[in-house]
Amino acid sequence: MMRRALKLAAKGTGHTSPNPLVGAVIVKDGRIIGEGFHKLYGSDHAEVDAFKNATEDVCGADMYVTLEPCSHYGKTPPCARAIVEKGISRVFIGLTDPNPLVSGKGIQILRENGIQVESGILEEEGRKLNEIFLKYITTELPFCIMKTAMTLDGKIATAGGDSKWITGELSRRNVHELRHRVSGIMAGIGTILADDPMLTTRLDGRAGKDPVRIIVDSSARIPLEAKVLNLNSKAGTIIAATAKADKGKIEALEAKGAEVIITPLKDSGVDLNFLMRELGKRKIDSVLLEGGGRLNYSALKSCIVDKVNSFIAPKLIGGENARTPVEGEGIADMKDAIILHKTEFYKFGDDLMIEGYIQKEVTD
Predict the structure, then answer these.
(1) What's the CA gap between 139 and 141, in Å, rounded?
(2) β-pairing, 23-28 with 31-37?
(3) How far apart are the C-alpha atoms of 130 and 124, rounded to whole Å?
(4) How far apart are CA 128 and CA 161, in angstroms?
(5) DSSP-derived pairing of the beta strands 184-188 and 212-216
(6) Looking at residue 77, what is its pLDDT?
């Protein structure tokens, strides 16, 4: 039943930010009599949605919910109170909510009202489903996914700069699913000048949500005719610049509808840590980094990356001057290499995708 609740929760992907993905299933006498999920930020939570969809009286039934029911008034009333009022007898919870406004309080309300509670069911699956929410709610910083696509010999473009297309159609479709999932997509000015991408979400047969476009451009060199500044999209564009940017150019960018964030200088460029804090203040809870080798290295050096999705195509192009996914000054000693753990492998057609999490140093 919890697996069913997790599948329901995933249906809200891309639409609930900065709220979590939550699913709920109501079971009575071994039968599912109601189920629901959080569909949209500001709409009914999963528990209430399940109550509304119930086919019979839920009094005495069990509820399976992927995240601890909320205990506070936000956009909607507290779900823990609704569960008590409906007469649910037992509640099975996947994950305790780390939100300081909830954390344990929802469970406490249920138990104080005689409801049996069991938590920690499929907890790891629940954590992965809500990895974005879990980081953002505890740090107010966006969860950052670095996406790369390279040939088997580690190139992201030919020596002449041609990069379309390294991976196949199925891999590119998955990237658009990733774009739909996140709140923001980040690229460097080099990518804009070389490829002039739109950085929008295009899904086959269904509407996709465009992420906010974030362009790292310390000197504000982006052309005013760039596609990211001239789109018919509900999502806006942010230019991350520094004091090196011309004030007149900043005014012109703002006149185009872009927001300009001025960060301190760091290593002669944008301070990415400062930028991530500013994005968090704007409720951008997640960022897909689709940068070139220099921006990727800066992001890794700044420790803003949480997860890496690396697509590898079975192609060989060679060229000692061909670009690679991570460049910059590089790491001098192998013992200091950035390590991924919890790695998983996926196939998209003939392409391989390696997914892993940046191994953070543990300090006392």
Answers:
(1) 5
(2) antiparallel
(3) 10
(4) 36
(5) parallel
(6) 73
Q: Quick check: 183 and 17 in contact, CB under 8 A?
A: yes
Q: What six digits make up the tokens of 117?
A: 């509670």
Residue showing tokens 């299933």: 25
pTM confidence score: 0.90
Residue 336: CB partners within 8 Å, gap ≥ 6?
Answer: none
Cα 21 → chain centroid: 12
| Tokens standing for residue 65 | 């919910």
3-class DSSP state for residue 224? coil
Q: In terms of C-beta distances under 8 Å and separation of at least 24 residues, what long-range contacts does 104-111 make, across chains too? A: 104/68, 105/71, 105/72, 105/80, 106/68, 106/69, 106/70, 106/71, 106/78, 106/79, 106/80, 107/68, 108/71, 109/71, 109/78, 109/80, 109/81, 109/84, 110/69, 110/80, 110/83, 110/84
Each residue of 254-297: pLDDT tens digit?
999 999 999 999 988 999 999 999 999 999 999 999 989 999 99
Q: Is 47 a catalytic residue?
A: yes
Tell me the chain's radius of gyration from C-alpha atoms.
23
353 near 346, Cβ under 8 Å? yes
Residue of 35, 47, 68, 290 marked active site: 47
The packing angle between helices 105-112 and 79-86, to 10°, is 20
Burial, 256: exposed, middle or buried (Cβ in 10 Å; 0-12, 13-18, 19+)?
A: middle
Q: 158-185: string of b/e by CB count within 10 Å (b at 16+)? A: beeeebeebbbeebbebbeebbbbbbbb
